[in-house]
Specification:
The structure is a homodimer. Chain A is an alpha/beta fold. Chains A and B meet through helix 1, helix 2, helix 17, helix 18 and helix 25 of A and helix 1, helix 2, helix 17, helix 18 and helix 25 of B.
Chain lengths: 694, 694
């Protein structure tokens, strides 16, 4: 148990490995000494000779246009540069550009209310004596400032910006992150640091999912019973909502509120049962899934309520779009209610989809009255809806594509569900407009972008950071950068750098794991557990839902909740095995072999320490079989490397036996799974076996 | 560099070491299997045979009295028990006591406004079938619930409460923590988690230092220019202040606001220069120290302003006490102003102290008008003040004692200054009423307790948690527990447990170090740095102020800011050396020798890794000489252990040479110091040396 932690960190934190397949991103032309650590990649970047040193004389000025938002953004960047470099800078930007090191030239403010039509592009030119950032709008300038911050490098001589010329413009105009604050409440300070993270990777829409069967989270002064009875006291005041909107706007991020209707509305009905299609009383729903409670679309009182409610919300959320949800109405209560059935016959509505369409048409008029565009999930799309309604597709690219062909704008979310616990590379490969699209140019223009979605059945305020980050940065790059920026190894290399930047904003996606392991084990001496945890990740969403019958009140305090999805070990170990298997007899291969062997030994020898820590922790002890398996995986790895390095064949049956061990380790257990099975399988399969006697 | 981290953790996280001097606290009578991990120690505790298992059928009920505050406290405890044990419990307390596992019997609510006269005692009896908590007031019950949470144990069979009988009452009535939010602003969410930490160790006063030369932090609607010009935009709204007051009250904590006057008031004068004794304009003071700006006590307009201001604040802060500061007025502006000089002559005020006394008398009348008792620092104490004015002593026990002899109540803060970066044991040894006190019983009753003080010149929101915790818990025990609870080894053992509980409240005192090291080094592979950092701590306050000419705007982003004061390594290493030197030829001694040798080797071999990480980080590189010294300290340790274990004498001059190395390592460098010098010195001094040839 002596060497393991350091070794395990080889897998966990591998920073850079020289591997044949690691290529520079297409957007990057390299110059001596420049390491591209930008995320997302800019559309055009060329490096120059030279560097701009960051010293106490560094200063910033704005020219042409300035406003409070731009000043605040420049100041924020200067403070971050200060903190990164330990140098006190005069943080108030000047207006006299002449003597400043950094000149920010902006043409104008952009839209009073930020919109999808705002120009977000910028250019940044850094020489050995100065930096010049140019943008048409303040939002463009903010993106440029973020890039500037990401360019900071250091060596023994000090901190500096490399000389570069960047021309950058986003590929998609709608680059969002949805957070479901209904199923588990997320406090304001967590949302703020999330917005900082979003700005860092140039996301521009925070889609705020504010109501669910499990909770109504937004204060209404007109209808106070919504939160009084539907929130467990966990909701945002109007002042807090305005604070979030302002905080987001200051970072170039629009806030699109979602109030899901007519379904997913149990929490509304606890205080206002008359809105529902069935008689009350109602309760806040604790379970997860699709439920019967649904608004009554046949009563005028429903629309009177919604008119008042939407009017009130429209004053808090200035964005042009208003998300009405519209998903997963099972129609059960509509079918059961004779009055509603008779309404459907009277209005010639053939089925519940027809009735929902009627509801949407009425809702659309209310939104228009209050100056809002409608956006909703796939289900809202019916032929009768006007073309300025926008669709967010959870069903997938076919659904989105069909909408575009019918003239509807849309954004993609299928493929970007962070709650599924997929690796970043899976999301990274999903393109809202793949290169084989059959859409015409005009139809393609209707695909506005996409949104990462964080559904919160299995996530709470404590672990949301590690569910969001750094994976969301990979999705952000997909939505910003050119389509041909798609080298997975290079993405992961840069994701490691971005992950540290995100930690600098106070996000806890790195630190929470150790903190949770300390809580679980009741000690600060968690070294063996860290080795164990470093090669584990949560099972996918469906698998957890299947294995654990949890509801909203179930404590999220198990090992699975401590673990980040797609931990660094996953890609790093895969890279190490790939290097070992495919790099012929080089120093790199020998190094990979050393690291693999050391790592496998660490898995084996950490077992007693893990079991010791589990002995007094019933919560941890649920994962005890995994500790045994970790040790077995180490044995498999050691044997495979031993055969591969000696060139000797394994005895007959060896492969089948070892693959069985791997199969066993892949079975559901304690809600966690190993990150290393596939590369181990590659190792085993690469071993040649002695021919059978038969 | 292979074995170091794990070894280093031996020093950093040593959980329990069997050491001869470690004794049970006097308050504890031990039963088989019960480990006392309570902090603070209760005044009476006896353990019984048996345990109360925590299962899903665990339930809670209140009897006799209940209110919303008690219900919330019971629910909060149940949620924590749930999360700790991974069991979903019905969290709403019942009113029918009969079938409940935990019965909370409370006589009444306690004071409408919590005061020093409230009964905070409780008793807790746990058998193998039930738990009964009894208290006269809700605040007493909250203390009992905290103790209950601290009693949770676990083993392979599950989670349980040990059977105990506790009768507990605080030694002092005023147990506070002062936080200076003037010099660096501390956000509301950080204050909230701090209040959770305070409640966990039964502190009952949050002393909120809200104004300083460097910033005025509290919104005034009557005088909006106070924050508009005096806060850099960093202040608490009245709504936030009310939120903090309510949050504190819900945890049995009073909030005493401090508005320091007549000095320390530069920030007031930026918006209201007419309050000052010298002509403006004024600026927010960026430097630290004692400055000239002071209120003009000769003008009626000053008192008119303060009447309005105190009236406004009295409505926000319901506590009976109002802290007026009163410290460190240098009198310079009063001496310079001819009009003030002539006022002093007219009123027969001999010196500036006399004038300040005049000011205090006027202020006292205003406070009385608004229903408040005055509290201030030592300087306010003049013979003319009425006896119900209370003194907070930063000057020390003599000053406090003199006040008590003259009839004034007081609390001690000298000895509890957390910003001095002293070890917990230093604060722990400071008793507001030492057993050799010459005060009469009546005079002793005037010493109400004490307050830990967190002055913020060198601390910001990022690192305040590690400056506060866990050291504040040791001070809290001094103020709550009987005087004879003073075993330092046992205190540190329990402090380690409490530290993990505090982390469970979201405090970052443990996790921030690694996060900051990642930021400083720009990588997640920080293992050698962690070894390095684990035996370093910040230099004392004065030393830092002397070595670094910092002001309010200086970034706090150096290695020193990453390091917690009094890290676990300090006491653990001392304990290990003590065990090695004083335990004769036992297994414990051999084990200590093994651990020491391994640790010293880790210090030596981590050097190249540390230097490698420093190479590209100019901020870290400032501490490069310390990395060299760490390696040298490892060599000294190895040599000493080698001589001591072999029994051979060292050559002549060896000791002097090695002590010189230690002396060198104690010299100021990079604002950090080693935690291990003194025990290393003991090791070296224990070696016998060959007689000199001379």
């Amino acid at each position: 148990m002596i060497r393991q932690l350091v070794i395990a960190m080889i897998f966990a934190n591998l920073a850079t490995v020289s591997v044949a397949s690691s290529q520079a991103a297409p957007a990057q032309s390299s110059a001596a000494g420049f390491t591209n650590t930008l995320m997302p990649q800019p559309s055009e970047l060329s490096t120059q000779e030279g560097r701009l040193a960051i010293t106490a004389s560094f200063s910033a000025a704005t020219e042409h246009f300035r406003d409070a938002r731009l000043d605040a953004a420049v100041t924020r960047s200067l403070v971050r540069i200060e903190n990164r470099c330990g140098i006190f800078l005069p943080t108030a930007p000047q207006t006299n550009a002449a003597p400043a090191t950094l000149v920010v030239s902006v043409d104008g403010p952009g839209g009073t209310i930020q919109s999808i039509d705002d120009d977000e592009s910028y250019s940044l030119e850094i020489t050995s004596s100065s930096a010049h950032l140019r943008a048409a709008t303040v939002v463009g300038a903010m993106h440029g400032l973020t890039t500037l911050e990401q360019l900071i490098q250091s060596d023994a001589s000090g901190y500096f910006f490399p000389a570069v010329v960047i021309h950058d413009t986003p590929r998609f105009r709608w680059r969002g992150l949805m957070i479901d604050c209904g199923r588990h409440f997320i406090p304001v300070d967590v949302l703020k640091r999330t917005l900082d993270g979003m700005a860092s990777v140039k996301l521009n829409v925070f889609h705020w999912h504010l109501s669910e069967d499990q909770g109504f989270r937004m204060e209404s002064k007109a209808f106070p019973r919504l939160t009084e009875f539907g929130s467990d006291g966990l909701f945002y005041t109007q002042e807090q909502a305005r604070e979030i909107v302002a905080y987001a706007r200051d970072r170039g991020i629009r806030v699109v509120p979602e109030f899901d209707m007519p379904g997913h509305t149990s929490a509304w009905f606890v205080g206002y049962p008359d809105l529902a299609s069935a008689p009350g009383p109602f309760q806040i729903e604790r379970k997860f899934g699709v439920f019967d409670p649904v608004m009554d679309p046949t009563r005028e009182s429903t629309y009177k309520f919604l008119d008042g409610f939407i009017g009130e919300m429209a004053a808090i959320f200035p964005d042009h779009f208003f998300h009405i949800g519209g998903d997963e109405n099972n129609g059960v209560e509509w079918k059961r209610n004779p009055r509603i059935q008779s309404f459907m016959r009277e209005h010639n509505l053939k089925d519940t989809a027809g009735l929902q369409n009627y509801f949407n048409q009425r809702l659309l008029k209310l939104l228009e009255k209050h100056g809002k565009h409608m956006i909703g999930w796939d289900e809202i799309l019916t032929p009768d809806l006007p073309k300025d309604v926008m669709v967010q597709s959870w069903r997938g690219f076919d659904s989105l594509s069909a909408g575009a062909k019918n003239g509807y704008t849309g954004i993609l979310s299928a493929g970007y569900y962070l709650n599924l616990m997929s690796p970043a590379e899976t999301h990274y490969a999903v393109d809202p407009l793949p290169d084989n699209t059959d859409l015409s140019t005009e139809q393609q223009a209707r695909i506005l972008g996409g949104e990462a979605c964080m559904w919160e059945e299995q996530t709470s305020a404590l672990d949301i950071d590690s569910r969001l980050w750094p994976r969301t940065a990979a999705i952000a790059e997909r939505l910003w950068s050119p389509r041909n920026v798609n080298d997975v190894d290079d993405m992961y290399r840069r994701l490691g750098v971005e992950s540290l930047r995100l930690e600098g904003f106070g996000l806890t996606h790195i630190s929470q794991e150790a903190a949770s392991l300390r809580q679980l084990s009741g000690t600060q001496r968690i070294e063996p557990l860290r080795i164990f945890a470093s090669v584990l990740e949560p099972v996918p969403f469906d698998a957890r839902a299947h294995q654990q019958h949890a509801n909203q009140l179930t404590p999220l305090d198990l090992l699975v909740d401590a673990l980040p999805p797609d931990p660094p070990s996953r890609h790093n170990f895969e890279l190490l095995v790939r290097t070992y298997l495919h790099l012929e007899n080089s120093g790199g291969r020998a190094q990979a072999q050393t690291e693999l062997t050391a790592g496998f030994n660490a898995w084996i020898t950490s077992r007693p320490g893990i079991l010791h820590l589990m002995a007094d922790s019933p919560l941890l002890a649920q994962a005890e079989p995994r500790a045994q398996q970790l040790s077995e995986l180490g044995e498999v790895g050691l044997e495979a490397v031993s055969y591969l390095s000696s060139g000797l064949p394994a005895p007959t049956g060896w492969k089948a036996a070892k693959l069985a061990v791997l199969d066993d380790a892949e079975k559901p257990q304690a809600l966690v799974r190993f990150t290393v099975i596939k590369p181990l399988r590659d190792l085993v399969n690469a071993v040649s076996e002695a021919p059978s006697d038969k």
